[in-house]
TrEMBL record:
Residues 296-493 form the Alpha-L-arabinofuranosidase C-terminal domain. It catalyses: Hydrolysis of terminal non-reducing alpha-L-arabinofuranoside residues in alpha-L-arabinosides. Its EC number is 3.2.1.55. Homohexamer; trimer of dimers. It comes from the Bacteria. This is non-reducing end alpha-L-arabinofuranosidase. Keywords: Carbohydrate metabolism, Glycosidase, Hydrolase. Belongs to the glycosyl hydrolase 51 family. It is an enzyme of class 3 (hydrolase). The gene is abfA.
Amino acid sequence: RTATVALNTQRIVSDISPLIFGGFAEHMGRCIYEGIYDPASPLADARGFRPDVMKALKDLNYRIMRYPGGNFVSGYRWMDGIGPREQRPRRRALAWRSIETNQFGADEFMEFARELDTEPMWAVNLGTGSIQEAADLVEYMNLPTGTQFSDLRAKNGNKDPYGVKYWCLGNEMDGPWQIGHLDAVAYADKAVEAAKLMRWMDPSIKTIACGSSNTAMPTFPEWDRVVLERAWEHIDYFSMHYYVGNPNMNSKEAVDTDSYLASSVHFDEHAETIGAAIRLAKAQNRSKKDVGICWDEWNVWYRAVGGDGGWEEAPHILEEVYNLEDALVVAQWLGTFLRKADIVRIACIAQIVNVIAPIMTRADGLFLQTIYYPLMMFSNHAVGNSLDVLVKAPTHETQKFGEVSLLDATASFDPASGKGAAFLVNRSQTEALDVTVLWEDVAPGELTQAWQMAGHEPAAANSFEQPEAVTIHTIDVPKLDGGRVTLTLPPLSFTVLTSQHS
Ligand code: AHR
């Protein structure tokens, strides 16, 4: 079977916001404790950070990091996590039925973010938390010394303000599972009041309101419409969450891997729906400003679903092991961010270590999950503009989405450096595709590198025993012929091709 992908460096969707390559670190399971902060490990440095974990995180080139939750944040008292460690309280974290020791908090997170060279994004507690506590936290993080909470920061060893720019107004407040859940009107009104105080404290901050937790919520997309309309003037971004899975794999029902491998059809539609709600709210508010999508929780999650921590510290919960087909879905999701680059301006994979994460650790080492590789490829190579790619490819019928192209293709081009990249997923489980990529306007001077991840077994996964069962490999760079190149994409594969234009 054959396909063509036509690229034109002048036909662009939008510039790519670097902040779409973000992560999310929540106080749950072993994400913080035994994940990014692991002082008991023989590998840890004096701060409790592990060089192996930091290197694996750095290679993902995260530009923004959301913290400290998630469901956790809706019961979190941020002042528990500052000051001398021996005086910090142990508490029950009700969201995940775990024990929170508070040995890692605001100042440790800022040290972590600095080390990772990533922009911090803080979520405030709008569950049990008050609008005053939210404003106090902004004072602690962002104000020059001279007032109570900024002086407290200095006393804790950090005289200079941190200047945290991005602030989430709560988490998944539409969900009945959320501590302090509210209806859309009550949430919007609380978010507005919190944002007002937070911005009075520091007018330079950007605020992000909660959208629906997922598209299956009975209140989706009415929640989004109401919150956007009421909170419009007080927000800069609007959050989306979504997790996907292939649950039939573990049940007696027919396995529907073809539909799972077409998940980006749903991701595209989801972004379009929220984009439409944003446009509507803009018109309703007779507004000139724009609000961007902040897709601040996204990932594959359906196997390790039990969130009961059994009142333990750092319980082993949500330790999903990812396989080849999950990596192909993650690659498509990143493709959605490029296709919708004009509206998706921030995105954070949930989460970064151990908990539904690309990196899995134990005290003496780590392994990289399959989903690590598409993240690394996109975050390191998708720069500049997202191109409006023309794809001609065979289709196949799927139960959930009808006729779907076998090829999911996206591309970027950076006019400043002349670097280009094409990201190609062959969704077919059985058929190879001979794909011709052609540059319609200017041919690249050279194709610089090519990588491929492929396999015959969609369920193949990595583990401590077999850490490289599924990885990405460099392949021979195909030969440019004028402005075009042809390469074969095996079934179940993800291929990246980079180019240099003079
Ligand atoms: O990322 C895991 C959880 O998923 C988060 O705490 C919550 O916001 C979402 O439901």
